[in-house]
Amino acid sequence: KNIAIFASGAGSNAQKIIDHFRGSSLAKVTLILSNKAEAGIFKIAEREQIPAILIDKEQFFRGDTYIKLLEEAKTDLVVLAGFLWKVPANLVTAFPNRIINIHPALLPKFGGKGMYGHFVHEAVLAAGEKESGITIHYVNEKYDDGGVILQEKCIITEEDTPESLARKVQVLEHKWFPLIVERLLTQ
Ligand code: GRF
Predict the structure, then answer these.
(1) ipTM of this predicted complex?
(2) Is 12 in the pocket of ligand 1 (CB under 6 A)?
(3) 5 φ, ψ to 5°?
């Protein structure tokens, strides 16, 4: 099975997924795509010798170029691992229930455009939440809106800061995302 990963940042989730399938006969990450030339994800791709593509914005939002590219790469599952753009509807339609995303909060709260990175954790803390966590969900044409696949929670304490909460959430991301990818590919 072929996994394509879209990422915009450091790529730590992408790295965990690559590690999880190392030497596996079930699946492997065969393509990495990013909208940020300077993102850490390109260093990961280089080190792991995985083809990496810098996304062209106009073409991405038109969709067809990347649909063709993903189909030619025989992609079975598209994984958004810290990808900040909304996926165009035609790309969603081309891969029904085969595009998933991870969000560092318990959707439907604290989701949507602009809710990423430390902004999420700041909002969760400002709202006085007693817990946060991750949401892994199918992607549809809206931000952070598709069917939920898994939610895992962490407790928030008085001492938590956006940074400490981010670390708690990242532990959950790194533990669960690879497992969900594997579960979806063995169904
Ligand atoms: C994570 O917080 C993830 O939940 C969100 O974007 C971030 C990606 O981090 N979608 P990384 O680039 O995988 O380290």
Answers:
(1) 0.95
(2) yes
(3) -115, 130
pLDDT in tens, the chain (187 residues): 999 999 999 999 999 999 999 999 999 999 999 999 999 999 999 999 999 999 999 999 999 999 999 999 999 999 999 999 999 999 999 999 999 999 999 999 999 988 999 999 999 999 999 999 999 999 998 889 999 999 999 999 999 999 999 999 999 999 999 999 999 999 8
Among 116, 118, 120, 124, which is best to mutate for testing ligand 1, by the most ligand atoms less than 8 A from CB?
A: 116
Token representation of residue 112: 């949507």
Which is catalytic among the residues 20, 103, 121, 137? 103
User: pTM for the complete prediction?
Assistant: 0.96
Binding-site residues for (6R)-10-formyltetrahydrofolate: 57, 101
> What is the 162 CA–ligand 1 centroid distance (Å)?
14
Catalogue the long-range contacts made by 164-169 (C-beta closer than 8 Å, 24 or more residues apart). 165/121, 165/124, 165/125, 165/132, 166/104, 166/117, 166/118, 166/121, 168/132, 169/104, 169/105, 169/121, 169/132, 169/133, 169/134
- Strands of the chain (E only): list them: 2-7, 28-34, 52-54, 77-80, 99-103, 131-138, 148-155
Q: Is the CB of 9 within 6 Å of ligand 1?
A: yes
